[in-house]
Amino acid sequence: MIRTLLGRAGLVVAAAGLVTVTSAAPAAAHGADAPDGTDYRTRTTGVAPARPGLEVRVIEAGARLELTNRTGRAIEVIGYSGEPYLRVGPDGVFENSHSPATYLNRTIAGDTALPADADPAAAPSWRRIADGTTARWHDQRALWQEAAPPAAVRAAPDREHRVRDWTIPLRDGTDPVVIGGTLDWVPPPDAYTWWAVTIVGLLAVGALGLLAATAPAGARALSALGVSLIVGGALAVAYPVGRELDAGAQGVGGVLVGLLSGQIWSLLTGVGAIAAGWYALSRRPGADFVVALAGACLALFAGAANAAVFANAIAPVPWSPAAARVMVALFLITGAGTTAAGILRLHAASRATAAAPRVEAAESGSTAAG
């Protein structure tokens, strides 16, 4: 019975992982291919000359720029060959279908094939792509696109380096305007230390499964596992919410749309872990199995899915990279630890169930002999 339940749990987790991978493609196709972590820090120094109502910020760990235009006038973003690329104004956001930047900026890698009519010398052909006055786009001028880091970084990778200052030209009517910014290399953290702490932590949590479930200590251990899942689940909900806010989501509605369209498994994992924690605290039948399954999902979809922050300096969240690493470590410790503890408790219960008939047979034999 226990093996059957664990087998089914494994199938559920594997199926969920497959769905996650296949459902990620449409999100990436719409430009939401933010990295899980990077060592390049992109910052904007503002717009010059300043335009009241015109704001620019860096989002998604530097993967995209966000321009909000409340000036009441149309502002154009200039492409790589000096052609109009985007137009942002009171009537919405438009892209020039003749601009090569329209296609090159579809992905962060800039590897989209150009159609035949992508001609920067052609007259603009504007196509409406969004309502509102905010545009978000990848821009190769603010990114490091090479596979290898710059020579200065290779020579001294343990130091912070200014890679370059960058500018992106705009046009306000006939007036030229410039977005300024910087691109820096930031040394990555010691991933081995984070993994070592995580492994020690998950082993400590997993050891709770060694306490006999029928003893008072075992009951307290189940409660501790439940509390851990509730805390881990709450953080697992907060992490994708933070990613959506960092990606420029506006208001509760914008966050919910982003979660449901691109991070549904992260959200469901957090909610499921909270529910499993309450189930464990109530000590209902099957709590050990529920704990093991919820922990596995937490470790996979919240922990392993975001573990890149252990090895990268910049995280795609609106709080510090160190806080992001602590959260991911807690996902893995809580998830993998409660999974191990749940399996140990299930195994002990299985052995106890198998041993019961033998004990009863031995007692019956002794009674008959007497």
Q: Which strands sit side by side, in order, in the main sheet?
A: 1-10-9-4-5-6-7
Tally of alpha and pi helices: 9
Give the low-confidence spans: 8-31
Q: Percent of residues in beta strands?
A: 15-25%
Distance between the termini: 36 Å
Structural class: alpha+beta
Beta strands, count: 10
User: What is the element string, with H for helices and E for strands?
Assistant: HEEEEEEHEEHEEHHHHHH
Helical residue percent band: 40-55%
- Please summarize the sheet with the most strands: 7 strands, antiparallel
Outline: elongated
* Average pLDDT taken over every residue: 88
Radius of gyration: 27 Å
What does this structure look like?
With 370 residues, the chain is of the alpha+beta class. 49% of the residues lie in helices and 18% in strands. The protein has 9 helices and 10 strands. The protein has helices at residues 2-29, 100-104, 151-155, 191-206, 216-246, 251-262, 264-281, 287-303, 321-369; strands at residues 40-48, 54-59, 64-69, 75-78, 84-89, 92-96, 126-130, 134-137, 161-172, 175-185. The strands form 2 sheets. It has a 7-stranded antiparallel β-sheet. Strands 2-3-8 form a 3-stranded antiparallel β-sheet, with no helix packed on it. The longest helix is centred in the C-terminal third of the chain and has 49 residues, at 321-369. The chain is elongated and about 80 Å long. The two termini are 36 Å apart. Mean pLDDT is 88; it is low at 8-31.
Question: In a few lines, what is going on in this structure?
Answer:
With 370 residues, this protein is of the alpha+beta class.
